[in-house]
């Protein structure tokens, strides 16, 4: 059956932070010049490692995993620093730069296009109680028919119950629902438990997800309308 409702993840699906710029500034202060593209690649690999090896870690309060994450990031770039000092300095840079979540530039237009094609839109996110603030600050709330946040409902992806709740509130069956996110283990496996189709966002081709086969992938949400046309899911 054609897709009539699309569900989205939030972090690094619809919104992002300029964390690479912060990290690069720290490196420059240490006399180390590494290009942003290499740093972005290292962040990507670190994200995927945490998603694969430490399920749920990235959805916790940042203080519970930040030094651990930065240590792995350093290792990926073949760098080493006293972690306590480094993390303190990174937080200072973040504060000075005003690091915050912002929507990818193409997101509003894609969501608007999907709405114009009469698709229902929803959000299922493992996030703390700031999720709605992030949506409002980026003027994204208006696009969604339903918003489900783990901290509000007491259950998180990949638990089947959060996806059951999504189907219940939307009134749309799994065979007509599509889930879009960047975490294979939370998003693809989780949504499959209720029979949803899924689409995995992976910016660097198959890099970082080499262990995964037979999964529909796109590099960003910007590719979603094209995918829906190619798959004859709904949009023409």
UniProtKB/TrEMBL annotation:
Name of the protein described by the UniProt record: Haloacid dehalogenase
InterPro entries per the UniProt record, alphabetical: HAD-like_hydrolase_domain, HAD-like_sf, HAD-SF_hydro_IA, HAD_2, HAD_sf, PGP-like_dom2
Pfam families named among the record's database cross-references: HAD_2
